[in-house]
């Protein structure tokens, strides 16, 4: 791990003294910055720093960026646990609020790799012309069209983006991955694939192949998959230390101006949180600060999964379009969430129970995007 720490320290030093730096390659994970996104960015950047592919300038500094503020990163117990237990100090990481993409694009030759996403958010759009590689495992966005003559794109349906990162790394037989980094890859794959539970159907063939390879090469305990998954899941689900507004901020993706927070608590229970700023008040504030007409909440806990659509008076039409798409997901996308509407005491909130829990936010996002694009174009 020491060599990785030294590499990350050197990256921060270079960013603080850019006078003699001309080429910068950014490796950027998605805006929720879960362990898959975070670990993928660090591991592939460290690999490219040692084994420079042809498409990255030889003298470029390779910068893995945690796509969240430093404060926001600390909301994620699972990330912090994984790095702390494997000896990676959090202060050597580069966070989104510590790097100015706009300034770099203006003054330097910037290239970029996207991991665990393939559509840039509004705040990262400045990198659009800089992107030369994409590694992602989520369903391909039909509205996204990279120039394949310029951008190396690998979008493959697997349980974890870390699987694609590991597959890339282990193509190089000369690359010696230390056990601590290998364990970070392994733990992330096990977590994302839900310990390869047959019921979850999350893990794919390549995920299983990589997990078994890591177990054999590094003597990781195959029988301990379930315990490892449950430990990380408990850490991820623990929001007892967070205020309601921080629960919303902890794992939010924004699609066409619509924030979609995912929470380890049911929507009803979140809205009923009390204190100086209760759940509902925090939601109103969150919508205002996000300048959002609608916020779509995804909440799950104790075998229950719910969707909440909060809308401002100006967002009522958008809410109706989102609701229509969600209730008719089978017609539009071929998969059925089996939503049923629930009663709620809260103003400007539509509450849905999700009968089919197989589908996640990944399947929710395309429906919201279609509705928002329809509203914006209308």
What this model shows, in words?
This protein has 378 residues and is of the alpha/beta class. The protein folds into two domains: 1-232, inorganic pyrophosphatase (n-terminal core) (Alpha-Beta Complex); 244-374, Diaminopimelate Epimerase, Chain A, domain 1, CATH 3.10.310.20. It is built from 15 helices and twelve strands. A six-stranded parallel β-sheet has the order 3-2-1-4-5-6, with helices on both faces. A six-stranded mixed β-sheet has the order 7-8-9-10-12-11, sandwiched between helices. A hairpin with a 6-residue loop joins strand 11 and strand 12. It starts with a helix and ends with a helix.
For this structure, the CATH topology of the largest domain is inorganic pyrophosphatase (n-terminal core)
Largest sheet: 6 strands, parallel
Average pLDDT figure: 93
The first-level CATH class of the largest domain is given as Alpha Beta
Radius of gyration: 21 Å
Strand content: 15-25%
Query: CATH superfamily assignment of the largest domain?
Result: inorganic pyrophosphatase (n-terminal core)
Low-confidence region ranges: none
User: What share of the residues lie within helices?
Assistant: 40-55%
Helix and strand pattern = HEHEHHEHEEEHHHHHEEHHEEHHEEH
What's the multimeric state?
Answer: single chain
User: What would you say the CATH architecture of the largest domain is?
Assistant: Alpha-Beta Complex
The class by helix and strand makeup works out as alpha/beta
Identify the overall geometry: globular
Q: How many individual domains?
A: 2
Number of helices: 15
The span between the termini is: 53 Å
* Spatial order of the strands forming the largest sheet: 3-2-1-4-5-6
**Total E-strand runs:** 12
